[in-house]
Write the structure tokens for this entry.
Amino acid sequence: MNQFFPAIDETFLKKERDKARKLRSSQWWKRKRSLGICHYCRHNFLPKELTMDHMIPLARGGKSEKFNLVPCCKECNTKKNQLLPTEWEEYMALIKK
Ligand SMILES: [Zn+2]
């Protein structure tokens, strides 16, 4: 892989987790979640069933910016955590057909 990942340290993670926590209680997020649609599988859920997901995980240099935060259902969340990034992309390609 020749992708560039910035160095991840505890300070970065803490700062980005704090930002995510603040955004989680914002109107922006409440509105987004109230649509009840998982960003990945596009199925409908109750807003409380959706969690905030970093499309690019913090551990890979993603940030807690609005464009990187999406509502995600439990199933997709679990899959994303279990699969390797390349396997996750294959899964995405599969369900987007
Ligand atoms: Zn989903």
The pocket of zinc ion is lined by residues 38, 40-41, 43, 73, 75-76 (CB under 6 Å).
